[in-house]
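Forwarding the complex inputs:
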Amino acid sequence: MEAPLYRGGLEDVARLYTLLRDERGLVVYGYRLDGGSIGFGVVRGASELPLRVEAEAGPGRYRLRSGVSFTTSHQSPKNYLHPPRQVVARVREDLSVEEPGAGEGGVALFAVKPCDLSAVKVLDELFRAGANPLYAARRGRVKFVVVEECLRPGATCFCSTTGSGPTAREGFDVAYAKLGGGTVLFKPGSPAGQGVLEEMGLEEAPESDVAEYRRLAEEASRRACLGVAVEEVQRALRRLMGDRGFWERVSERCLACSSCNMVCPTCFCTELVDEYDGRVNTRVAQWVGCLSYTYGMVAGGHFRRWLYTRYRHFVLHKFLFYPVQTGRLGCVGCGRCVTWCPAGVDLRETLLRAVGEGGG
Amino acid sequence: MRSPFAELRRGLVVGEVYEAPNVKTLAVRLVDEVPPPRPGQFNMVYVHGLGEVPLSVSGVREGGRVVEHTVRAAGAVTRALVYREWRGGLIGLRGPYGRGWPLEEAEGHDLLVVAGGMGFAPLRPVLKWVAERRERYGRVNVLVGARTPRDLLFKYELESYRGLPGTRLLLSVDRPEGAWGGHVGLVTDLIRLADVDPGGSYAFVCGPEPMMVNAVKALRERGFREDRVFLSLERRMRCGTGFCGTCQLGHYFTCRDGPVFRLTEVSDYLAVEGV
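Prediction (whole assembly, two chains):
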Protein backbone atom coordinates (compact mmCIF):
# COMPACT_ATOMS: atom_id res chain seq x y z
CA MET A 1 0.00 0.00 0.00
CA GLU A 2 1.26 3.47 -0.84
CA ALA A 3 2.06 5.82 1.99
CA PRO A 4 -0.57 8.52 2.50
CA LEU A 5 -0.03 12.05 1.18
CA TYR A 6 -0.26 14.97 3.56
CA ARG A 7 -1.68 18.38 2.86
CA GLY A 8 -0.15 21.67 3.83
CA GLY A 9 0.80 25.08 2.54
CA LEU A 10 3.91 27.04 1.63
CA GLU A 11 4.35 27.95 5.28
CA ASP A 12 4.74 24.22 5.98
CA VAL A 13 7.65 24.03 3.57
CA ALA A 14 9.25 26.80 5.61
CA ARG A 15 8.37 24.91 8.82
CA LEU A 16 10.00 21.76 7.44
CA TYR A 17 13.13 23.77 6.73
CA THR A 18 13.18 25.22 10.24
CA LEU A 19 12.54 21.83 11.83
CA LEU A 20 15.49 20.24 10.01
CA ARG A 21 17.76 23.12 10.89
CA ASP A 22 16.72 23.78 14.50
CA GLU A 23 15.23 20.51 15.79
CA ARG A 24 17.46 18.11 13.88
CA GLY A 25 20.52 20.38 13.98
CA LEU A 26 21.32 19.87 10.31
CA VAL A 27 23.13 22.27 8.03
CA VAL A 28 20.53 22.85 5.32
CA TYR A 29 21.84 23.03 1.77
CA GLY A 30 19.32 23.98 -0.87
CA TYR A 31 18.25 26.48 -3.47
CA ARG A 32 18.20 30.00 -2.13
CA LEU A 33 17.34 33.41 -3.45
CA ASP A 34 20.52 35.31 -4.06
CA GLY A 35 19.84 38.78 -5.37
CA GLY A 36 18.00 38.37 -8.64
CA SER A 37 18.94 34.73 -9.12
CA ILE A 38 18.74 31.36 -7.43
CA GLY A 39 21.87 29.60 -6.29
CA PHE A 40 22.60 26.43 -4.31
CA GLY A 41 24.20 26.61 -0.90
CA VAL A 42 23.54 26.86 2.83
CA VAL A 43 20.07 28.29 3.36
CA ARG A 44 20.41 30.63 6.32
CA GLY A 45 16.78 31.52 6.82
CA ALA A 46 13.34 30.55 5.54
CA SER A 47 13.07 33.89 3.79
CA GLU A 48 15.83 32.76 1.42
CA LEU A 49 13.73 29.83 0.16
CA PRO A 50 12.57 30.42 -3.44
CA LEU A 51 8.95 29.58 -2.67
CA ARG A 52 7.16 32.10 -4.86
CA VAL A 53 9.22 32.39 -8.01
CA GLU A 54 9.29 30.74 -11.38
CA ALA A 55 11.76 30.82 -14.23
CA GLU A 56 11.17 31.63 -17.82
CA ALA A 57 13.70 29.43 -19.60
CA GLY A 58 14.72 28.75 -23.17
CA PRO A 59 17.90 28.04 -25.12
CA GLY A 60 20.32 30.67 -23.84
CA ARG A 61 17.64 32.38 -21.80
CA TYR A 62 16.65 32.44 -18.09
CA ARG A 63 14.59 35.07 -16.27
CA LEU A 64 13.10 34.83 -12.79
CA ARG A 65 9.69 36.26 -12.01
CA SER A 66 7.13 35.71 -9.29
CA GLY A 67 5.16 32.53 -9.72
CA VAL A 68 4.37 29.10 -8.29
CA SER A 69 7.55 27.07 -8.67
CA PHE A 70 10.94 27.32 -10.32
CA THR A 71 12.53 24.37 -12.06
CA THR A 72 16.30 24.66 -12.16
CA SER A 73 19.10 27.00 -11.25
CA HIS A 74 22.57 27.31 -12.76
CA GLN A 75 23.76 25.46 -9.67
CA SER A 76 22.79 22.07 -8.24
CA PRO A 77 23.58 19.75 -5.30
CA LYS A 78 26.87 19.09 -7.10
CA ASN A 79 27.95 22.50 -5.82
CA TYR A 80 27.93 21.04 -2.31
CA LEU A 81 28.90 17.42 -3.00
CA HIS A 82 31.63 18.10 -5.54
CA PRO A 83 32.43 21.78 -5.19
CA PRO A 84 33.83 23.91 -8.01
CA ARG A 85 37.04 24.42 -6.10
CA GLN A 86 38.37 22.51 -3.13
CA VAL A 87 41.76 22.29 -1.52
CA VAL A 88 42.79 18.62 -1.56
CA ALA A 89 46.28 18.84 -0.08
CA ARG A 90 48.84 21.26 1.27
CA VAL A 91 52.34 20.04 0.57
CA ARG A 92 55.24 21.40 2.59
CA GLU A 93 58.85 21.66 1.43
CA ASP A 94 59.74 18.31 3.04
CA LEU A 95 56.86 16.83 1.00
CA SER A 96 54.79 16.10 4.09
CA VAL A 97 51.10 16.56 3.36
CA GLU A 98 48.32 18.21 5.29
CA GLU A 99 44.85 17.13 4.23
CA PRO A 100 41.91 19.43 4.88
CA GLY A 101 38.76 17.95 6.39
CA ALA A 102 35.39 17.70 4.69
CA GLY A 103 33.59 19.77 7.33
CA GLU A 104 31.51 18.48 10.19
CA GLY A 105 27.89 18.05 11.12
CA GLY A 106 24.90 16.46 9.42
CA VAL A 107 23.56 17.98 6.22
CA ALA A 108 20.06 18.15 4.78
CA LEU A 109 19.62 18.55 1.05
CA PHE A 110 16.52 20.70 0.90
CA ALA A 111 13.99 21.02 -1.90
CA VAL A 112 16.27 19.54 -4.52
CA LYS A 113 14.58 18.52 -7.77
CA PRO A 114 13.87 14.97 -8.92
CA CYS A 115 16.47 15.44 -11.67
CA ASP A 116 18.97 16.55 -9.00
CA LEU A 117 18.26 13.40 -7.05
CA SER A 118 19.05 11.30 -10.12
CA ALA A 119 22.21 13.32 -10.66
CA VAL A 120 23.34 12.58 -7.10
CA LYS A 121 22.81 8.86 -7.73
CA VAL A 122 24.98 9.14 -10.84
CA LEU A 123 27.74 10.84 -8.85
CA ASP A 124 27.37 8.22 -6.10
CA GLU A 125 27.98 5.39 -8.56
CA LEU A 126 30.77 7.18 -10.37
CA PHE A 127 32.71 8.07 -7.27
CA ARG A 128 32.11 4.73 -5.62
CA ALA A 129 33.85 3.06 -8.55
CA GLY A 130 36.56 5.73 -8.67
CA ALA A 131 36.89 5.62 -4.87
CA ASN A 132 36.81 9.39 -4.37
CA PRO A 133 37.11 9.85 -0.60
CA LEU A 134 36.58 13.61 -0.88
CA TYR A 135 33.13 13.01 -2.30
CA ALA A 136 32.41 10.15 0.09
CA ALA A 137 33.09 12.38 3.10
CA ARG A 138 30.71 15.09 1.93
CA ARG A 139 28.09 12.57 0.84
CA GLY A 140 28.34 10.81 4.18
CA ARG A 141 27.28 13.99 5.95
CA VAL A 142 23.92 14.01 4.15
CA LYS A 143 21.34 12.77 6.67
CA PHE A 144 18.07 13.99 5.19
CA VAL A 145 16.82 14.69 1.67
CA VAL A 146 13.80 16.78 0.74
CA VAL A 147 12.65 16.84 -2.88
CA GLU A 148 10.46 19.43 -4.56
CA GLU A 149 8.68 17.75 -7.44
CA CYS A 150 7.98 19.62 -10.66
CA LEU A 151 4.35 19.80 -11.61
CA ARG A 152 5.22 22.69 -13.95
CA PRO A 153 8.31 21.64 -15.88
CA GLY A 154 10.40 24.33 -17.55
CA ALA A 155 10.59 24.87 -21.27
CA THR A 156 13.98 23.16 -21.56
CA CYS A 157 13.16 20.17 -19.29
CA PHE A 158 13.05 16.64 -20.68
CA CYS A 159 13.34 14.58 -17.50
CA SER A 160 10.51 12.20 -18.31
CA THR A 161 12.52 10.98 -21.33
CA THR A 162 15.61 10.37 -19.20
CA GLY A 163 13.52 8.72 -16.48
CA SER A 164 14.54 11.22 -13.82
CA GLY A 165 11.40 13.27 -13.21
CA PRO A 166 9.17 15.18 -12.96
CA THR A 167 8.22 13.31 -9.77
CA ALA A 168 10.39 11.26 -7.42
CA ARG A 169 9.85 7.67 -6.38
CA GLU A 170 12.78 6.81 -4.14
CA GLY A 171 15.96 8.02 -2.55
CA PHE A 172 14.46 10.83 -0.45
CA ASP A 173 12.99 11.30 3.00
CA VAL A 174 10.25 13.79 2.15
CA ALA A 175 9.00 14.96 -1.23
CA TYR A 176 6.49 17.70 -1.79
CA ALA A 177 4.63 19.15 -4.76
CA LYS A 178 2.96 22.52 -5.17
CA LEU A 179 -0.57 22.19 -6.52
CA GLY A 180 -1.13 25.91 -6.93
CA GLY A 181 -3.34 28.13 -4.85
CA GLY A 182 -0.83 27.73 -2.03
CA THR A 183 -1.61 24.04 -1.52
CA VAL A 184 1.35 21.71 -1.03
CA LEU A 185 1.19 17.91 -0.90
CA PHE A 186 3.85 16.12 1.12
CA LYS A 187 4.83 12.48 0.74
CA PRO A 188 7.19 10.48 2.95
CA GLY A 189 9.96 8.46 1.31
CA SER A 190 11.47 6.90 4.42
CA PRO A 191 10.56 6.17 8.05
CA ALA A 192 12.52 9.29 9.02
CA GLY A 193 10.47 11.34 6.58
CA GLN A 194 7.24 9.83 7.85
CA GLY A 195 8.28 10.76 11.38
CA VAL A 196 8.96 14.36 10.43
CA LEU A 197 5.62 14.76 8.67
CA GLU A 198 3.81 13.31 11.68
CA GLU A 199 5.73 15.60 13.96
CA MET A 200 4.59 18.55 11.86
CA GLY A 201 1.01 17.49 12.51
CA LEU A 202 -0.07 17.64 8.87
CA GLU A 203 -3.45 16.25 7.95
CA GLU A 204 -3.90 13.56 5.34
CA ALA A 205 -4.67 14.98 1.92
CA PRO A 206 -8.27 14.68 0.69
CA GLU A 207 -8.97 12.45 -2.30
CA SER A 208 -9.61 15.47 -4.54
CA ASP A 209 -6.11 16.88 -3.91
CA VAL A 210 -4.50 13.51 -4.56
CA ALA A 211 -6.41 13.20 -7.84
CA GLU A 212 -5.37 16.70 -8.85
CA TYR A 213 -1.74 15.85 -7.98
CA ARG A 214 -1.84 12.75 -10.16
CA ARG A 215 -3.41 14.65 -13.04
CA LEU A 216 -0.80 17.43 -12.89
CA ALA A 217 2.04 14.90 -12.58
CA GLU A 218 0.90 13.06 -15.71
CA GLU A 219 0.56 16.29 -17.62
CA ALA A 220 4.03 17.39 -16.48
CA SER A 221 5.45 14.07 -17.57
CA ARG A 222 3.97 14.53 -21.06
CA ARG A 223 5.42 18.03 -21.29
CA ALA A 224 8.94 17.17 -20.11
CA CYS A 225 9.38 14.73 -22.95
CA LEU A 226 11.72 14.67 -25.92
CA GLY A 227 9.47 12.60 -28.17
CA VAL A 228 12.06 9.88 -28.78
CA ALA A 229 13.16 7.02 -26.55
CA VAL A 230 16.61 7.01 -24.94
CA GLU A 231 17.33 3.64 -26.60
CA GLU A 232 16.74 5.17 -30.04
CA VAL A 233 19.08 8.03 -29.18
CA GLN A 234 21.74 5.60 -27.99
CA ARG A 235 21.50 3.46 -31.13
CA ALA A 236 21.85 6.54 -33.31
CA LEU A 237 24.79 7.90 -31.32
CA ARG A 238 26.61 4.58 -31.56
CA ARG A 239 26.19 4.69 -35.32
CA LEU A 240 27.32 8.31 -35.58
CA MET A 241 30.33 8.05 -33.27
CA GLY A 242 32.85 8.26 -36.11
CA ASP A 243 30.85 10.63 -38.32
CA ARG A 244 32.95 13.78 -38.10
CA GLY A 245 30.60 15.75 -40.38
CA PHE A 246 27.61 15.19 -38.09
CA TRP A 247 29.51 16.32 -34.99
CA GLU A 248 30.90 19.38 -36.73
CA ARG A 249 27.38 20.35 -37.82
CA VAL A 250 25.78 20.01 -34.39
CA SER A 251 28.65 21.84 -32.67
CA GLU A 252 28.80 24.64 -35.24
CA ARG A 253 27.61 27.35 -32.87
CA CYS A 254 29.48 26.07 -29.80
CA LEU A 255 31.88 28.63 -28.32
CA ALA A 256 33.89 26.07 -26.30
CA CYS A 257 33.10 28.05 -23.14
CA SER A 258 32.08 24.93 -21.15
CA SER A 259 29.13 26.64 -19.45
CA CYS A 260 27.22 23.41 -20.13
CA ASN A 261 29.79 21.47 -18.07
CA MET A 262 29.67 23.95 -15.21
CA VAL A 263 25.86 23.88 -14.89
CA CYS A 264 25.47 20.14 -15.55
CA PRO A 265 24.58 18.34 -12.31
CA THR A 266 26.54 15.22 -13.32
CA CYS A 267 29.64 16.66 -15.00
CA PHE A 268 32.49 15.88 -12.63
CA CYS A 269 35.79 16.34 -14.46
CA THR A 270 38.43 17.92 -12.30
CA GLU A 271 41.73 19.62 -12.92
CA LEU A 272 44.50 19.88 -10.32
CA VAL A 273 45.85 23.39 -9.86
CA ASP A 274 49.01 24.04 -7.87
CA GLU A 275 49.12 27.31 -5.95
CA TYR A 276 52.61 27.82 -4.61
CA ASP A 277 53.55 30.56 -2.15
CA GLY A 278 57.27 29.81 -2.22
CA ARG A 279 57.10 27.31 0.64
CA VAL A 280 53.75 25.55 0.77
CA ASN A 281 52.11 24.20 -2.37
CA THR A 282 48.33 24.22 -2.12
CA ARG A 283 46.79 21.65 -4.43
CA VAL A 284 43.32 22.62 -5.57
CA ALA A 285 40.84 20.36 -7.36
CA GLN A 286 38.87 22.56 -9.70
CA TRP A 287 36.12 21.73 -12.23
CA VAL A 288 37.26 21.53 -15.81
CA GLY A 289 34.80 21.21 -18.66
CA CYS A 290 35.34 18.86 -21.60
CA LEU A 291 34.27 21.66 -23.95
CA SER A 292 37.20 23.88 -22.98
CA TYR A 293 40.23 23.83 -25.24
CA THR A 294 42.66 22.53 -22.61
CA TYR A 295 40.61 19.38 -21.99
CA GLY A 296 42.77 16.54 -23.28
CA MET A 297 45.80 18.75 -23.78
CA VAL A 298 49.13 17.51 -22.44
CA ALA A 299 52.58 19.06 -22.58
CA GLY A 300 53.51 16.91 -25.54
CA GLY A 301 50.29 17.12 -27.56
CA HIS A 302 46.49 17.17 -27.51
CA PHE A 303 44.08 14.27 -27.40
CA ARG A 304 40.96 16.33 -28.18
CA ARG A 305 42.27 19.21 -30.22
CA TRP A 306 39.13 19.68 -32.34
CA LEU A 307 36.04 21.23 -30.80
CA TYR A 308 33.77 18.63 -32.39
CA THR A 309 35.59 15.87 -30.49
CA ARG A 310 34.95 17.67 -27.21
CA TYR A 311 31.29 18.37 -27.91
CA ARG A 312 30.93 14.76 -28.98
CA HIS A 313 32.50 13.60 -25.73
CA PHE A 314 29.95 15.64 -23.76
CA VAL A 315 27.06 13.99 -25.60
CA LEU A 316 28.44 10.45 -25.88
CA HIS A 317 29.58 10.48 -22.30
CA LYS A 318 26.09 11.32 -21.01
CA PHE A 319 24.28 8.80 -23.19
CA LEU A 320 26.75 5.97 -23.91
CA PHE A 321 29.65 6.08 -21.47
CA TYR A 322 28.01 6.90 -18.11
CA PRO A 323 25.74 3.86 -18.49
CA VAL A 324 28.86 1.67 -18.68
CA GLN A 325 30.67 3.56 -15.91
CA THR A 326 27.73 3.86 -13.49
CA GLY A 327 24.84 1.76 -14.73
CA ARG A 328 22.85 4.99 -15.11
CA LEU A 329 22.23 7.51 -17.83
CA GLY A 330 24.53 10.52 -17.34
CA CYS A 331 21.91 12.98 -18.55
CA VAL A 332 19.04 13.68 -16.16
CA GLY A 333 17.08 15.85 -18.59
CA CYS A 334 17.29 19.00 -16.49
CA GLY A 335 17.91 21.21 -19.52
CA ARG A 336 20.52 23.30 -17.74
CA CYS A 337 23.06 22.93 -20.57
CA VAL A 338 20.43 24.28 -22.97
CA THR A 339 19.29 27.15 -20.77
CA TRP A 340 22.76 28.36 -19.86
CA CYS A 341 24.40 27.97 -23.26
CA PRO A 342 25.22 31.52 -24.32
CA ALA A 343 24.97 30.45 -27.96
CA GLY A 344 21.73 28.54 -27.44
CA VAL A 345 23.22 25.20 -28.52
CA ASP A 346 20.41 22.80 -27.74
CA LEU A 347 21.29 19.27 -26.61
CA ARG A 348 17.72 18.17 -27.38
CA GLU A 349 18.19 19.29 -30.97
CA THR A 350 21.46 17.33 -31.22
CA LEU A 351 19.71 14.20 -29.94
CA LEU A 352 16.77 14.59 -32.32
CA ARG A 353 19.10 15.24 -35.26
CA ALA A 354 21.10 12.17 -34.27
CA VAL A 355 17.96 10.05 -34.39
CA GLY A 356 17.01 11.72 -37.70
CA GLU A 357 20.40 11.11 -39.35
CA GLY A 358 21.69 8.03 -37.60
CA GLY A 359 18.49 6.27 -36.60
CA GLY A 360 16.49 3.60 -38.34
CA MET B 1 40.15 7.19 4.06
CA ARG B 2 42.75 9.59 2.72
CA SER B 3 42.47 11.11 -0.71
CA PRO B 4 44.99 9.91 -3.27
CA PHE B 5 46.43 13.44 -3.34
CA ALA B 6 47.48 13.00 0.28
CA GLU B 7 49.20 9.68 -0.45
CA LEU B 8 52.34 11.43 -1.60
CA ARG B 9 55.47 9.42 -0.81
CA ARG B 10 58.87 10.99 -0.51
CA GLY B 11 61.53 9.76 -2.89
CA LEU B 12 65.23 10.51 -2.69
CA VAL B 13 66.85 10.80 -6.10
CA VAL B 14 69.89 8.49 -6.05
CA GLY B 15 70.81 8.40 -9.71
CA GLU B 16 70.43 10.35 -12.94
CA VAL B 17 71.34 9.22 -16.44
CA TYR B 18 70.89 11.35 -19.54
CA GLU B 19 69.49 9.09 -22.25
CA ALA B 20 69.52 11.96 -24.74
CA PRO B 21 69.99 15.72 -24.37
CA ASN B 22 66.32 16.13 -23.42
CA VAL B 23 65.63 12.75 -21.80
CA LYS B 24 66.72 11.58 -18.40
CA THR B 25 66.27 8.45 -16.29
CA LEU B 26 65.91 9.20 -12.60
CA ALA B 27 66.46 6.52 -9.97
CA VAL B 28 64.41 7.24 -6.87
CA ARG B 29 64.82 5.56 -3.49
CA LEU B 30 61.54 5.53 -1.63
CA VAL B 31 61.77 6.91 1.86
CA ASP B 32 58.30 5.57 2.65
CA GLU B 33 57.10 1.99 2.18
CA VAL B 34 55.26 1.50 -1.10
CA PRO B 35 54.04 -1.57 -3.01
CA PRO B 36 56.48 -2.46 -5.81
CA PRO B 37 55.11 -1.48 -9.22
CA ARG B 38 54.36 -4.10 -11.85
CA PRO B 39 55.72 -3.69 -15.36
CA GLY B 40 53.47 -1.23 -17.22
CA GLN B 41 52.22 0.65 -14.16
CA PHE B 42 52.87 4.34 -13.61
CA ASN B 43 53.39 6.82 -10.80
CA MET B 44 52.22 10.38 -10.44
CA VAL B 45 55.53 12.18 -10.00
CA TYR B 46 55.46 15.42 -8.04
CA VAL B 47 57.90 18.33 -8.16
CA HIS B 48 57.37 20.73 -5.31
CA GLY B 49 55.82 24.00 -6.35
CA LEU B 50 55.18 22.89 -9.92
CA GLY B 51 52.82 19.95 -9.86
CA GLU B 52 52.51 16.35 -10.96
CA VAL B 53 52.86 14.31 -14.11
CA PRO B 54 52.03 10.67 -14.85
CA LEU B 55 55.22 8.76 -15.66
CA SER B 56 55.63 5.10 -16.49
CA VAL B 57 57.90 3.11 -14.27
CA SER B 58 60.90 2.30 -16.47
CA GLY B 59 62.76 0.21 -13.93
CA VAL B 60 62.55 -1.37 -10.47
CA ARG B 61 65.53 -2.22 -8.31
CA GLU B 62 66.07 -3.67 -4.85
CA GLY B 63 62.64 -5.29 -4.79
CA GLY B 64 60.83 -2.03 -5.38
CA ARG B 65 62.77 0.17 -2.95
CA VAL B 66 64.23 2.01 -5.93
CA VAL B 67 62.10 2.87 -8.95
CA GLU B 68 63.22 4.47 -12.18
CA HIS B 69 61.38 6.95 -14.36
CA THR B 70 62.49 7.96 -17.80
CA VAL B 71 61.24 11.40 -18.69
CA ARG B 72 61.44 13.71 -21.69
CA ALA B 73 61.35 17.48 -21.23
CA ALA B 74 57.96 18.67 -22.52
CA GLY B 75 56.12 20.79 -19.92
CA ALA B 76 56.98 22.60 -16.70
CA VAL B 77 57.30 19.53 -14.46
CA THR B 78 59.15 17.36 -16.94
CA ARG B 79 61.54 20.20 -17.85
CA ALA B 80 62.33 20.58 -14.16
CA LEU B 81 62.94 16.84 -13.86
CA VAL B 82 65.23 16.74 -16.87
CA TYR B 83 67.19 19.96 -16.58
CA ARG B 84 67.61 20.39 -12.84
CA GLU B 85 70.32 18.59 -10.89
CA TRP B 86 68.34 16.13 -8.75
CA ARG B 87 70.82 13.80 -7.06
CA GLY B 88 70.19 14.01 -3.31
CA GLY B 89 66.94 15.91 -3.85
CA LEU B 90 63.39 14.96 -2.93
CA ILE B 91 60.58 14.30 -5.36
CA GLY B 92 57.11 12.98 -4.55
CA LEU B 93 55.55 9.80 -5.87
CA ARG B 94 51.96 8.57 -5.79
CA GLY B 95 51.14 5.11 -7.03
CA PRO B 96 51.79 2.71 -8.52
CA TYR B 97 48.59 3.09 -10.52
CA GLY B 98 46.88 1.32 -13.36
CA ARG B 99 46.91 -2.05 -15.03
CA GLY B 100 50.22 -3.27 -16.38
CA TRP B 101 51.29 -5.82 -18.99
CA PRO B 102 49.72 -9.31 -18.73
CA LEU B 103 52.99 -11.12 -18.16
CA GLU B 104 51.50 -14.17 -16.46
CA GLU B 105 48.89 -14.59 -19.18
CA ALA B 106 51.63 -14.46 -21.83
CA GLU B 107 53.64 -17.28 -20.21
CA GLY B 108 54.28 -20.20 -22.56
CA HIS B 109 53.94 -17.98 -25.62
CA ASP B 110 56.23 -16.11 -27.97
CA LEU B 111 56.49 -12.42 -27.21
CA LEU B 112 56.87 -9.49 -29.56
CA VAL B 113 57.75 -6.17 -27.96
CA VAL B 114 57.33 -3.07 -30.13
CA ALA B 115 58.62 0.22 -28.72
CA GLY B 116 58.61 3.60 -30.39
CA GLY B 117 60.50 6.55 -28.90
CA MET B 118 59.59 7.18 -25.26
CA GLY B 119 57.30 4.15 -25.51
CA PHE B 120 60.33 2.03 -24.67
CA ALA B 121 60.16 3.28 -21.05
CA PRO B 122 57.15 1.17 -19.87
CA LEU B 123 58.41 -1.82 -21.88
CA ARG B 124 61.88 -1.94 -20.35
CA PRO B 125 60.53 -3.59 -17.13
CA VAL B 126 58.99 -6.26 -19.39
CA LEU B 127 62.45 -7.13 -20.75
CA LYS B 128 63.90 -7.27 -17.25
CA TRP B 129 60.98 -9.42 -16.09
CA VAL B 130 61.40 -11.84 -18.97
CA ALA B 131 65.20 -11.96 -18.52
CA GLU B 132 64.68 -13.16 -14.95
CA ARG B 133 62.15 -15.81 -16.04
CA ARG B 134 63.44 -16.56 -19.51
CA GLU B 135 62.30 -20.20 -19.48
CA ARG B 136 58.64 -19.23 -19.09
CA TYR B 137 58.42 -17.60 -22.51
CA GLY B 138 58.97 -18.76 -26.09
CA ARG B 139 60.87 -16.75 -28.66
CA VAL B 140 61.21 -13.09 -27.76
CA ASN B 141 61.58 -10.35 -30.37
CA VAL B 142 62.21 -6.77 -29.38
CA LEU B 143 61.67 -4.03 -31.96
CA VAL B 144 62.82 -0.57 -30.93
CA GLY B 145 62.49 2.61 -32.94
CA ALA B 146 63.70 6.16 -32.39
CA ARG B 147 64.03 9.35 -34.43
CA THR B 148 67.83 9.23 -34.53
CA PRO B 149 70.42 6.88 -33.02
CA ARG B 150 71.04 9.49 -30.33
CA ASP B 151 67.38 9.34 -29.26
CA LEU B 152 67.48 5.60 -28.52
CA LEU B 153 66.76 4.95 -24.84
CA PHE B 154 68.86 2.62 -22.69
CA LYS B 155 71.68 2.41 -25.28
CA TYR B 156 74.05 1.24 -22.55
CA GLU B 157 72.15 -1.99 -21.99
CA LEU B 158 70.63 -2.81 -25.38
CA GLU B 159 73.32 -5.35 -26.17
CA SER B 160 72.51 -7.27 -22.99
CA TYR B 161 69.00 -7.98 -24.33
CA ARG B 162 70.47 -9.28 -27.56
CA GLY B 163 72.51 -11.65 -25.45
CA LEU B 164 69.47 -13.38 -23.87
CA PRO B 165 68.81 -16.86 -25.25
CA GLY B 166 66.15 -17.06 -27.95
CA THR B 167 65.91 -13.30 -28.17
CA ARG B 168 66.21 -10.96 -31.18
CA LEU B 169 66.64 -7.23 -30.97
CA LEU B 170 65.97 -5.10 -34.05
CA LEU B 171 66.60 -1.38 -34.04
CA SER B 172 65.28 1.22 -36.43
CA VAL B 173 65.66 4.98 -36.72
CA ASP B 174 63.95 7.59 -38.88
CA ARG B 175 67.16 9.48 -39.60
CA PRO B 176 70.49 7.56 -39.46
CA GLU B 177 73.64 9.23 -38.23
CA GLY B 178 77.28 8.17 -38.16
CA ALA B 179 78.01 4.46 -38.45
CA TRP B 180 74.41 3.30 -38.00
CA GLY B 181 74.13 -0.43 -38.61
CA GLY B 182 70.42 -0.88 -37.90
CA HIS B 183 67.31 -0.35 -39.99
CA VAL B 184 66.08 2.97 -41.32
CA GLY B 185 62.36 3.71 -41.36
CA LEU B 186 59.34 3.08 -39.17
CA VAL B 187 59.72 0.64 -36.31
CA THR B 188 56.41 -0.86 -37.36
CA ASP B 189 58.04 -1.92 -40.65
CA LEU B 190 60.11 -4.36 -38.58
CA ILE B 191 56.99 -6.27 -37.58
CA ARG B 192 57.10 -8.20 -40.86
CA LEU B 193 60.65 -9.33 -39.96
CA ALA B 194 59.71 -10.60 -36.52
CA ASP B 195 60.66 -14.22 -35.94
CA VAL B 196 57.73 -15.31 -33.78
CA ASP B 197 54.66 -17.47 -34.38
CA PRO B 198 52.00 -14.79 -35.12
CA GLY B 199 49.05 -17.04 -34.24
CA GLY B 200 50.53 -17.97 -30.85
CA SER B 201 52.40 -14.84 -29.90
CA TYR B 202 51.64 -11.98 -27.57
CA ALA B 203 52.50 -8.45 -28.71
CA PHE B 204 53.15 -5.57 -26.30
CA VAL B 205 53.20 -2.19 -28.01
CA CYS B 206 53.94 1.31 -26.78
CA GLY B 207 54.79 4.49 -28.62
CA PRO B 208 53.15 7.57 -30.09
CA GLU B 209 49.51 6.78 -30.91
CA PRO B 210 49.87 6.97 -34.73
CA MET B 211 52.73 4.48 -34.44
CA MET B 212 50.56 2.14 -32.38
CA VAL B 213 47.76 2.37 -34.91
CA ASN B 214 50.30 1.42 -37.59
CA ALA B 215 51.58 -1.39 -35.44
CA VAL B 216 48.07 -2.77 -35.02
CA LYS B 217 47.63 -2.75 -38.79
CA ALA B 218 50.91 -4.60 -39.33
CA LEU B 219 50.14 -7.10 -36.56
CA ARG B 220 46.72 -7.83 -38.06
CA GLU B 221 48.32 -8.36 -41.44
CA ARG B 222 50.73 -10.87 -39.96
CA GLY B 223 47.90 -12.75 -38.31
CA PHE B 224 48.34 -11.82 -34.66
CA ARG B 225 45.26 -12.52 -32.54
CA GLU B 226 43.58 -9.27 -31.44
CA ASP B 227 43.03 -10.57 -27.92
CA ARG B 228 46.79 -11.09 -27.57
CA VAL B 229 47.82 -7.63 -28.67
CA PHE B 230 48.29 -5.10 -25.85
CA LEU B 231 48.84 -1.35 -26.08
CA SER B 232 49.87 1.12 -23.41
CA LEU B 233 47.95 4.36 -24.00
CA GLU B 234 48.58 7.87 -22.83
CA ARG B 235 45.93 10.44 -21.86
CA ARG B 236 45.74 13.50 -19.64
CA MET B 237 45.90 11.96 -16.15
CA ARG B 238 45.47 13.91 -12.94
CA CYS B 239 44.22 11.72 -10.08
CA GLY B 240 45.40 8.21 -10.98
CA THR B 241 42.36 6.42 -9.57
CA GLY B 242 39.57 7.18 -12.04
CA PHE B 243 37.59 10.10 -10.70
CA CYS B 244 39.09 13.28 -12.08
CA GLY B 245 37.78 12.19 -15.46
CA THR B 246 40.26 13.90 -17.73
CA CYS B 247 41.92 10.71 -19.00
CA GLN B 248 38.74 9.29 -20.46
CA LEU B 249 38.94 7.26 -23.63
CA GLY B 250 35.39 6.38 -24.59
CA HIS B 251 33.99 4.79 -21.45
CA TYR B 252 37.40 3.94 -20.01
CA PHE B 253 39.40 5.84 -17.46
CA THR B 254 42.87 5.31 -18.90
CA CYS B 255 44.56 5.68 -15.51
CA ARG B 256 42.46 3.00 -13.83
CA ASP B 257 41.28 0.72 -16.65
CA GLY B 258 44.61 1.08 -18.48
CA PRO B 259 47.12 2.33 -19.31
CA VAL B 260 47.66 -1.13 -20.80
CA PHE B 261 44.64 -2.26 -22.82
CA ARG B 262 43.88 -5.40 -24.77
CA LEU B 263 43.36 -4.43 -28.39
CA THR B 264 39.87 -5.95 -28.43
CA GLU B 265 38.88 -3.51 -25.65
CA VAL B 266 39.89 -0.36 -27.51
CA SER B 267 39.97 -1.13 -31.23
CA ASP B 268 36.63 0.63 -31.87
CA TYR B 269 37.83 3.77 -30.10
CA LEU B 270 41.26 3.78 -31.76
CA ALA B 271 39.46 4.10 -35.09
CA VAL B 272 37.73 7.32 -33.99
CA GLU B 273 39.76 10.53 -33.72
CA GLY B 274 39.69 12.14 -30.26
CA VAL B 275 36.96 9.95 -28.74
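The first helix of chain A runs from residue 10 to 23.
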